[in-house]
Amino acid sequence: MKKLLRIVVWTAIALLGAGALSAIALHRGEPLNATWFVLAAACCYLVAFRFYSAFLAARVFVLDDTRATPAEVHDDGRDFVPTNKWVLLGHHFAAIAGPGPLIGPTLAAQFGYLPGTIWLIAGAVLGGCVQDFVILFCSIRRDGKSLGQMAREEVSRRGGFLAQIAVLAIIVILLSATALVVVNALKSSPWGTFTLAMTMPIALLMGVYLRYWRPGRVLEASAMGVALIVFAVVSGQWVADAPSWARVFTLTGPALAIAIIIYGFAASALPVWLLLAPRDYLSAFIKVGATLALAGGILFVHPAVQMPALTRFIDGTGPVFAGKIFPFCFITIACGAVSGFHALISSGTTPKMILRESQARLIGYGAMLMESFVGVMAMVAACAMSPGVYFAINSPAGIVGTTAESAATTITGWGFRLDPQTMHDLARAVGEQSMLNRTGGAPSLAVGMAQIFSTTIGGPRLLSIWYHFAIMFEALFILTVIDAGTRVGRFMVQELGGHVWKPLGRKGWTPGILLSSGLIVGAWGYFLYQGVLDPLGGINSLWPLFGIANQLLAAVALVVATTILLKMGRRRWVCVTLVPMAWLVTITMTASYQKVFHSNPRVGFLARARELAEQLAAGVVPAAQIAATHRQIFNQRLDAAVTAVLAAMILVLIVEAVHQWYAILRGRGVAALHESPYIATKWLPGTEGAHAHGLPGGND
Amino acid sequence: MPRLSLIVQRIARTAWRWLREWSGDAAYDSYVRRAARVQPGKPPLAPAEFYLEQIERRYSRPNRCC
């Protein structure tokens, strides 16, 4: 009877999901209600989690709960800490959730809502979640080893080294692309700039509180910090209204870029307790809070999605970024569907804290489903505003001009009705001077969120407060990635550099810290600054570069996982990692090739360099612009070289792996698997939770 | 309805405990509980020392994503 009920319930969920998906896919004309998106995503996730992840756990990985996990074997109260699975799910989600799933889908909305939504759901279920799950599983079986170490041991020494270099390159590109989003959101915005600037003294205060006054009292300090931040958002309006103050906080793009570069350097070189850690606590709370609020807002308001299912820009002429739907829709969405960066988290802290192998299913597969859901909500928020407004906010000045009138003419010409007055009214309603040319996704997402929130609480009167709250949330989010990423990048530079020049590898040596911080900040700062100056909007070149790098890392993770599955003798099920890997290799290689060699100057880096060189040769460049044009030509060639080198490195790694797969499948040589030896768990079934809390019942 | 209030109390207590563990607020308490077993005979670190050591380690490897 119970079994029958289960079959009925799951059939109903599956049918509901299929119905919602077909409603989204086949609907044309009238605006579509956002509830369909939430339903389609939720039902697909439930079915995938219940059936596909169970299949992966039982048949492909054969998770074994009699095996002691690293947390049990090495339990040291520091790195290896047995942790309750729901708490660990929260940790893992807070670690993998970043600005990517908010920005990517917002940018990809230029193709219409359909391609992005389908890829967010399908890519996560079949690719991203599988990657996170399999890497977590492999790392648990290897005492929590990192992706680089696993690549070295299971694929080849060279493979491990290439993976390490790739990670460093990806961090540099990621930081420059996300920093550019912050610059585009805050330029000429005294309110937003003031709010974000205030997060620094607030973090310093929290840092001192946590270090000297009440050591480790994170909740007290965070509650105080969140209250102060809310006050900073509200008081930003007073700053923007006072001309003498507004002038101080009205910064141009280049000035903001320099401020962020200085911040990145400071966060990397200063002690972590002072700035980095307290900001991270703040950001974690606001991240989870704002995500839940957005989900609640969408469910409560269920806005109508005004963007069409497909726009004319699937042909590659999109104003936000250029390139056809294949491969650039997939490259742009990146993190919300598949994120290579997650493999670093799944093979870092999480495997050292998990209690049982079977919990990897909830934490590896489940957390990524949540992340994908965040991406779907961002897509809804971006598509809920009128398409004309969406394109006006997200198109660079080089395409729609810098005035509302010119933007309205161009965008109406594309077939999306836009009245210049709408843009003036919107800017005034959200408390900004202009909402044009704010490419990058953060401002349009903030407008979407503000419209949804203000419908729930406060009405149009509070629109400007909600808008700046959303901007603060995204900027805080991104700065957290920038400071944490710069610091991790610094350690990688120190580690790699230590092989070349010994003193650089020494941990506490101040000149070494300053030099390696300077190197990493200089690298991403360079790309950021050039992106700010780019007349086509740096997002057009930096975001695809970031997407390519991220998806390449995902391909690396899946190559390592495929190798391990083959060595474990699971060749029957190897398709679960091989198919997403082949897809990622296809899209990244196509995108890399197009970004380097495409004949359209907005897509191909080399074509753009050629176009600029021809303009110089023809003498049509004004004298004042000659130096800048030379610099642009150099940058286009640099971008092309970076793309080509990254793609080539990953190809070498894949060739090495395929060579090894061939040997394994032919039965030649010994496929040595570097798993840690089996140790039986000493915890009685059902007592892990008690053990994790140190409560009576845990048998330690 | 004494039973209902008991259930609410239990849920609230669990939620609070999870929140403290998730945020790191309870990290020192659980460290002290473990320290005696992991390194017997050695006094545990003071709260400020433990806090510094813990965040230093946490922020020297990838722990935040895109």
Outline of this structure?
The complex is a heterodimer of chains A (700) and B (66). Chain A has helices spanning 2-26, 35-60, 70-74, 85-96, 100-108, 113-140, 147-155, 157-186, 190-213, 218-241, 243-249, 253-269, 276-301, 325-333, 342-346, 360-383, 387-394, 397-400, 404-413, 420-430, 442-456, 463-500, 510-533, 539-567, 575-597, 605-618, 626-666, 688-693; strands spanning 32-33, 304-305.
What does this structure look like?
The complex is a heterodimer of chains A (700) and B (66). By secondary structure, chain A is mainly alpha-helical. Chain A has helices spanning 2-26, 35-60, 70-74, 85-96, 100-108, 113-140, 147-155, 157-186, 190-213, 218-241, 243-249, 253-269, 276-301, 325-333, 342-346, 360-383, 387-394, 397-400, 404-413, 420-430, 442-456, 463-500, 510-533, 539-567, 575-597, 605-618, 626-666, 688-693, and strands at 32-33, 304-305. Chain A contains 28 helices and 2 strands. Chain B is mainly alpha-helical and 66 residues long. Chain B is 70% helix and 0% strand. Chain B contains 3 helices and no strands. Chain B has helices spanning 2-23, 27-38, 47-58. The model of chain B has no long low-confidence stretch (mean pLDDT 87). The interface between A and B is large, with 60 and 38 residues.
Distance between the termini of chain B: 48 Å
What does the average pLDDT of chain B come to? 87
Quaternary structure annotation = heterodimer
- Total strands of chain A: the figure is 2
Q: Major sheet of chain A: order of its strands?
A: 1-2
Bulk shape of chain B: flat
Instruction: Tell me roughly what share of residues is in helical segments of chain B.
Output: 55-70%
Topology readout:
The complex is a heterodimer of chains A (700) and B (66).
Chain A: H1 2-26, E1 32-33, H2 35-60, H3 70-74, H4 85-96, H5 100-108, H6 113-140, H7 147-155, H8 157-186, H9 190-213, H10 218-241, H11 243-249, H12 253-269, H13 276-301, E2 304-305, H14 325-333, H15 342-346, H16 360-383, H17 387-394, H18 397-400, H19 404-413, H20 420-430, H21 442-456, H22 463-500, H23 510-533, H24 539-567, H25 575-597, H26 605-618, H27 626-666, H28 688-693
Helix pairs in contact in A: 1-2, 2-6, 2-16, 4-16, 5-14, 5-16, 6-14, 6-16, 6-24, 6-25, 7-8, 7-24, 8-12, 8-22, 8-23, 8-24, 8-27, 9-10, 9-11, 9-13, 9-22, 10-13, 10-22, 12-22, 12-23, 13-16, 13-21, 13-22, 14-24, 14-25, 16-21, 19-20, 21-22, 22-23, 24-25, 24-27, 25-27, 26-27
Chain B: H1 2-23, H2 27-38, H3 47-58
